[in-house]
Structures are given as structure tokens and as C-alpha cells.
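anyone seen this seq b4? input:
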Amino acid sequence: MSTITKKELALLVSEQTNCKKNIAAEMVDSLFVAMRDSLIDGNRIEIRGFGVFQVKDTRPKPAARNPRTGEIIYVPARRKTHFKPGRLLKEALHETREPAADAAVNAPTVAPVAPVGGSELTNQ
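predicted toks r here
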């Protein structure tokens, strides 16, 4: 499993839409800025076939304890982001992969080694 950066996403968009890399990077960046601003405002973002991003409020915790000092502290309510995958994404993630394909991808490639000194079947 690897991590894909925003730059790599922009490169994929550039290749799939046949547009310049800098324009694709601006599109991807503006999409993320719009999504971030919308979530900060408390809006729900629904992308069909992908999932739903939303902001949820947490409850305050009146009696939390500092593990280092043992002091009882108050933890205020806050907002957190939540992502719920859509049906198509969920189905794609739940499909089982063939182990041979994964093993072939993750297995190191080893070049065959030629015997030193000629054939092994020669008389000794």
C-alpha cells in the first residue's frame, strides 16, 4: 500500500483529461480548498459513487484525567470530520484480491544465476 500525494493526483487528472499539468494542479487544489471551506462552514459534501464528508459535533467530557499527573481536566465539545464511503466504493473495497497477484507485486525480482565454471553435469 502506498500514499498518493496531491501532486500525484494532479498528474493523474492531467493524464486523464489531456490538459496541462499546471492547470490540473490548480483544479485539484481549488477542489480541496472548496471542500475544506465547505466543511469549515459545517456543510455536508456528498459525492455520488464515492462517499459523504461531514462535520460532527462531539460531546464534552466533564471528567477526563491527565495520565501523567492524574489531574482531572475538562475536555470541551469540538467538531470532527467524518467520512462515510459510498456503496460503490464500499463494494470495491470489500472485493477479495487474489493472493497470487499480491504476492507477485510484493515479491522481489530475482535474476537467474548462471553456473560458474560451465555445466554441472560434466564429469568430475
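Strands lie at 45-47, 51-57, 61-65, 72-75, 79-85. Residues 110-124 have pLDDT under 50 and may be disordered. kinda curious what u guys think
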